[in-house]
Queue: 2 jobs
Job 1
Amino acid sequence: MEFNIDKAMRERLEETRERGRREIRPIGLEADRLGRPIPPDDPYFAMLIARGEGRSRWPGPAGRPKTAGTGGANKSSARATRSVVMHLLLAEESAYWDRGVGVANPGPGMPEPNVISMGTDEQKERFLSRFLEPDKPRWACFAMTEPGAGSDVAGIRTLARKDGDGWILNGAKCFIGNASRSDWILVWATVDPEAGRAGHRAFVVEHGTPGLGGFKIEKKMGLKAYESTSFTLEDCRVPAGNLLGGEERYQSRAGFKSAMGTFNAGRPMIAANSVGIGRAALDEALTFARDHDLLGDPRVRDRLEQSARKLRQARLLYLRAGWMVDAGKPNVLEASMSKAIAATIAADVTALGMEMLGGVGARGDHLIEKLYRDVKAMDIVEGTGQIQRVIMGRHLVQLPRD
C-alpha cells in the first residue's frame, strides 16, 4: 500500500485547512448556536457554487473533462481528487472543522455513484447534467432509512407497485440528509416485502412530484448544520423511466448490491469524518490542558498520548479501505472495520475532552461539548457499529455477507 501524497494534494489539504478555519467552523458554530440547518439560500452555498464546487463527477454526455474542486484547480489537482484515498483525506480535514457543514454542502451527494453505475445514459444526462455547471446551489439525496428499517436495509417497507406505464410508491422515509431541498431523491422501495433484498428497486423521485411530501426537519443533538428530514410517499406516481437502470438491472439482486456498494465506499468516509472530529477534540483538549497546567500530571499525558495513537490507528484503517477501492479490490470487511473502530475511538476522545473540561463542559459553550454531541452520529449513520460487527463476524466465519 502507498499513501504518499503529491504536491497538488498537499496544496488541496492546506486549502481545505484554511477554508475550515475561515469559513467552515464559523458557519458550523452558528448553525449549532441557532439550532437549525444552514438555509439553502445562505450566501455560503452561493459562494461554493461560484468557486466551482457542488459539481458532478460524471463527465457529461460528451465525456468532456471538468475541473474538480475549485474553478481554478489545475489538472494534477483534478486527478488527485479522483482517488478515493485523496477524497478520504480531504473528508477528514473538512470534518476537523465541522462535519455537519460538509454534509450540508450542495451537490449530487450520496446517490451519485448509484446513478453513474446503474443509470442508463438517458438517466445520467437527465439527473446529473444539472450538476455539471449548476446555475445555483442544488442538492440530491439518498433515501433508504425508514421508521422500521435502519441498519437492516433488507427490511424496508416502502412499496412500489407497477401501474400501467409507471409506478406507484407508498411509504415513509426518515433521517434523510437534505431531502426537502433536493432537486430529486433516490428512493429505495420494494416490490415485495417478503422477497427481502431481491425485491429492492431504486426510483428517482423529482421534487414537486404529487404524493411526495410531509417534509419534517428533525431536531438533533448534534450536526445541526445539515437537515435530517422525514417525508412520506402517498400514491406517488413516477414514470417507468425513473426506475434507475430499468427493470433488467434488478435481476440477481443487482439493485441491493449497488446500494451496498455505495455503503462500502461511504463507510470509510464516515471513518475519516470520525478521525477528523477526534483530532479536533484532541487538539482542544491539549490546549485546555496546557492553559490550565494539567500537562504535568502523567495520567493526563498518558491518556492524551493514547488518544493520539488510537486516532492514527483509525486513520490507517480507513486509508486501507480506501486504497482497496482504488485498487479494485473488494473491501466489505475493511469498510466495516474502519467505520466501527474509528467511530468508537472518536467518541472516546471527545469523552476524554469532556472529562478534562469538568464543569466547563456543562456550560454548553465549549467546542469540545459540541464535538461530543456531533460524534454520536458517527456510530449510527451508514450502518450502526453493531451492524458493522455483525458483518465482520459473518466474514470471520465465512457466512454469506449480502
Job 2
Amino acid sequence: MQYLYGMRNRATAVVRRDGLLLLVRDRGFRHFSLPGGGVQRGESAEEAVVRELREETGLHAVSLTPLPQCRTSDIFNTYHVFEILAEGSLSLDPVELSAAQWWDGRRGIPLFGYVNHVLAQLHWPK
C-alpha cells in the first residue's frame, strides 16, 4: 500500500453501460461504493484500478481515462478516480463483495460519501 500523509491511496473505477453505473457493496457493509481498492507498493493507480476491477467484478478494462476533477479524500483514503470502458460479464468475488448492481441514479440507495462527491463532479445522473 502507498501512503500520502498517512492516508491510503485507492484507485476507483467509474464504469457505465447503457446509462447505468456499476456499484458494488463490500462484504459486511451497508453502503455501496464504486469498484476499486488499494494501490499496492510499486503499482500505479492505473494498474491498481484495472487489477481491482478484474479481481472484484471479473470485468476487463478496455480503456481508462483519469478523472482528476473527481479526486477526493476522506479521513482514511485518497481516491484516484478513472472512467473505465470495460467488457465482460459480472462475476463477483464472494470473499470481497456481497452485491453489485447497475444503477440508474434515481432509486435511493445508501452510498459512501466519496461516491456522492464523484457523482456530483460528473453531474450524474443528468
